[in-house]
From TrEMBL:
InterPro entries in the cross-refs: Knottins (IPR003614), Scorpion_toxin-like_sf (IPR036574)
Species name: Medicago truncatula (Barrel medic)
Pfam families, per the entry: Gamma-thionin (PF00304)
Protein's name in the database: Defensin-like protein
Parts of the chain that traverse the membrane: none
Keyword Signal carried by entry: yes
Presence of keyword DNA-binding: no
C-alpha cells in the first residue's frame, strides 16, 4: 500500500477543517444590559417594541427591552456585547 501525496493533503485538510470548526464553537458572546442614554420618556409597560427599535437604530445595540430598575420603574435597557 503506497501512500500518495493527495491522501496526505486530504487528511491534512480534513484535520484543519475539524480544528477550525471546534475552535469556533468554543467562543460565546456575552451580552450586557446598559440603560439607554438617549431614551428620555417613560417606558411603555406592555409595548417594548419602541424601546427595542430605539436601541437598535439609535444606539446600535443588539436589542432592547423595558425592564424594572432598582426602584421598580420601567426603564429602557439596551443590550450590547461585553
Amino acid at each position: 500500500m503506497t501512500s500518495s501525496p493527495s491522501k496526505f493533503y486530504a487528511i491534512f485538510l480534513f484535520l484543519s477543517f475539524a480544528l477550525l470548526l471546534f475552535s469556533t464553537l468554543e467562543v460565546q458572546a456575552q451580552i450586557c444590559p446598559r440603560r439607554s442614554i438617549t431614551w428620555h420618556r417613560p417606558c411603555p409597560a406592555r409595548d417594548t417594541v419602541k424601546c427595542e427599535n430605539h436601541c437598535i437604530n439609535k444606539e446600535h445595540a443588539f436589542f432592547g427591552s423595558c425592564q424594572p430598575d432598582h426602584s421598580f420603574k420601567l426603564v429602557c435597557l439596551c443590550y450590547f456585547g461585553c
